[in-house]
Amino acid sequence: MTQYVSDIVLKQRKIRFDKLGTPLQIKDKQKYKSSLKRWQKKLLHVQQAYFHQHKRAIVVFEGWDASGKGGAIRRLTEQLDPRGFAVHPIASPTAEEQGRHYLYRFQTRLPKPGRIAIFDRSWYGRVLVERVESLTEERAWRRAYQEINEFERMLTDDGVRIIKLFMHISPEEQLARFQERLHNPYKRWKLTEEDIRNRARWQDYEAATEDMFDYTDTKHAPWHLIAAEHKWFARISVIETIVKALSKHVDVSPPPLDDDFIKLAEALLGVEGPKSPGK
Questions:
Q1: Looking at the 3D structure of the chain, how many domains does it have?
Q2: In a domain, 279, yes or no
Q3: What pLDDT does 60 receive?
Q4: I want to staple 56 with a disulfide (CB 3.0 to 4.6 A). Which of 111, 144, 192, 220 is the partner?
C-alpha cells in the first residue's frame, strides 16, 4: 500500500464476521411491514432531496451467494421514483469490456446529478472472485486495493456519496437457501453451478473478504456489515443504514414552496389552496 492509501484506510477498526454475534431477527410480520414502510418513506424523502439538490449517490451491494442482495434491492427501490435511480447487476465483463481497465465498465455507469446508482456486485469482484478463482494475476489484484481507494476517493471528492454494504450469512443458512432454490421451480434459476463451486471455497472467500475490509474500509467510503441471516431484519437494516448514511450532513427536508407559482397555478386551474386555521 502507498502512503496515500494508508492515510485513508480506517486501520483502527477490524471488520470481522465473528464480531456480529447472535443474528438478530424480526418475528412479527406486521411489525416488519410497518417498519419497512416507515424506512421506505424516509428513503423516498432522501431521494427527493438528492434530486432537488442535484446530489449523486452510489450504493454498493456485496455479499455471499444467496445472502439476500436481490430481495434487499427490491425493497430498497420499491417506493422510489424510478426516474431517480438505476440498478446495475454486475456479471462477467462483455467482449467490449474485456481488455479494458476493469474499472471502465463501472465508470460508464456512474450516476448523473440527482440520481442514485445501485450496484448488485461491483468493482470489488477484482479482489474477491478474481482473486480466489485466479482470474487475474496476484500483482493485479493486490494493486487493485489502492486503485479502488483512489477511484472512490476521486468520486467522493467530487461530491458523490458512496454506501458500501456486505450482506453476511452463515454457511448453514446458505445451504438451507440453496436447498430451497434447488427444489423451488420459481427460484431454481437463482442457483448456478458457480454458486455451488464458490461454496466449496468458503474459507478462501472469507479471507479475501476480510482483506477487502482491511484495505478498503476508508473514512470517505466505509464498509457496513449487514447481518443477513434473517431476511426481514436484513432488509430493514439495509434501508436504515442507507437512509442514515445518505442523510448525514444533508438537508432532507422538502424545498420551500414557490408562492408566486402556487398563486399562478391556482388562478389558471380555478382552485383555491387550503385555508389557514380559523378562517
A1: 1
A2: no
A3: 98
A4: 111
The whole model's pTM is what? 0.91
Determine the structural domain holding residue 155 and report its residue range: 3-269
DSSP string, the chain: --HHHHHHB-TT----GGGS-SPP----HHHHHHHHHHHHHHHHHHHHHHHHTT-EEEEEEEE-TTSSHHHHHHHHHTTS-GGGEEEEE--SPPTTTTTS-TTHHHHTTPPPTT-EEEEES-GGGGGTHHHHTT-S-HHHHHHHHHHHHHHHHHHHHTTEEEEEEEEE--HHHHHHHHHHHHH-TTTGGG--HHHHHHHTTHHHHHHHHHHHHHHH-BSSS-EEEEE-SSHHHHHHHHHHHHHHHHHTT---SPPPP-HHHHHHHHHHHT--PPPPTT-
Cell numbers 443477513: residue: 228
In a domain, 278, yes or no: no
DSSP-assigned beta bridge partners for residue 163: 59
Residue type, 4: Y
Core vs surface per residue 32-59: b (16+ CB within 10 A) or e: beebbeebbebbbebbbbbbeeebbbbb
What are 222-234's pLDDT values in tens digits? 999 999 999 999 9
**Does residue 87 lie in a domain region?**
yes
Find the CATH number of the domain harbouring 256.
Answer: 3.40.50.300
Is 11 within 8 Å of 219 (Cβ atoms)?
A: no
Mean pLDDT, to the nearest integer, of 127-152?
97
φ/ψ (deg, to 5) at 93: -65, 145
HSE-CB at 230 with a 13 A cutoff on CA atoms is 13
C-alpha cell at 153: 476517493
What per-residue confidence (pLDDT) applies to 23?
A: 80
